[in-house]
Amino acid sequence: MSLNLTIDARFVANHEAFLRRLARGLAGDAADDAMQAAWLGALEAPPRRDARGYLAAVLRHGVLRLRSRERRRHAVEAGGAREERLADLVARRLELQEELARALRALPDAQRTALYLRYHEDLTPTEIAARTGT
Fold first, then answer.
1. How far is Cα 10 from Cα 79, in angstroms, rounded to an integer?
2. 40, 12 in Cβ contact below 8 A?
3. Angle ∠(61,62,66) on CA atoms, nearest 5
4. What tens-digit pLDDT sequence spans the chain (134 residues)?
5. Which residue of 30, 51, 72, 129 has the fewest CB atoms within a 10 Å radius of its CB?
6. Extents of the domains making up the chain
């Protein structure tokens, strides 16, 4: 025989301590959120028989959803931080390249050419001497 239990003040009072202990054990700091989700779930679809077992299942399911949501949020935040760090790295490298280009432009032609050929064209000193005739 299946009877619908009514979620009323007496039902909540009878099961509040049980649900709170379970929520603290499963959700820790998020116990209040987990309990709220469990009560909402019980209101939307009241238990038909074993109220404690039903509430425990609804609570466990709610905790899993909360944890999943938290993991996704942390992943998104970490991705954003990673993108930010990468953007900062790229910006700094571009600044260094600009500083290097300015410093190279300030050198006399022979030195600028030798450094450019060595580090940008990857020529050996012998190849540079042959190419520049020095």
1. 47
2. no
3. 120
4. 444 556 777 877 888 888 888 888 888 888 888 888 888 878 887 777 778 888 888 888 888 888 888 888 888 777 766 777 888 889 999 999 999 889 999 999 999 999 989 988 899 999 999 999 98
5. 72
6. 9-132
